[in-house]
Structures are given as C-alpha cells and as structure tokens.
Amino acid sequence: MVEALILKASEQVIVSSVQLVLLKKKRYKDIFEELTTMGLAVGRFANDDKVWQSYLKQQGWIEVKYGRGARLLREHNLLGRNIAVINRHLTAVINNTVYDTWDTTARKCWRVWHQDD
Known about the structure:
Blueprint (H helix, E strand, L loop, with lengths): L2 E4 L6 H9 L6 H15 L6 H10 L2 E5 L5 E2 L8 E5 L4 E5 L2 E4 L7 E2 L1 E5 L2
Parallel strand pairs: 1-6
Antiparallel strand pairs: 2-8, 3-7, 4-5, 4-8, 5-6
Helix pairs in contact: 1-2
C-alpha cells in the first residue's frame, strides 16, 4: 500500500518529482533548464504535458495508462522509482512512498511513468 511523505509546499512539483525519481543524478537547475529549453522549442511552458512527457521519454521512461481501470493511488503497488499522474498533477512514488507537497493517496491514479530496468 502506498503511503505519503509530505514535502515543503514551495517545491516545484514537476521538476522536483522528476529530479527525485532520477535519483538526483541531475541538479534541479539542470532539469529545469532542459524542460524550459524543450518548451521554448515548441512554444509551450516547461510544465506542459507534451514537454515533460517528451522529457521523460528521452530519459528512457515508460508510460503505463490505466484509463477506466484507474484506482486510488494508495491501492497501487509501485516499487522502484515512479511518477504517478493524479488529475493533472505529478507525484513522485518511490517504493510505495509518495513524495509530494500534499497527500495524493486518496486520488485516482490515471497513469504511471517508470524506468524500464
């Protein structure tokens, strides 16, 4: 069962989630700059779905869509490093622990991004 660990509200959620699940192999600033550059290239903001999804794909991440099979985040068994999509919000989940600025475990998880190890 997934449990929550609440982070500081000032964290930049998309960049922080990506940095956290990438084992902090990249600095926050570097990820932010890469996302911003990608966004500028296509005329979108860094937090646009097409931008951060393209970024994750470039980093070797795989998307799993649940569609009608979506269930509450706390009902998932998410081992390893994951990014869960909760109603237009990204949540880092590492070994069934949610790292976010608020408790998202009672929200439906529509898709998950994970690394194909």
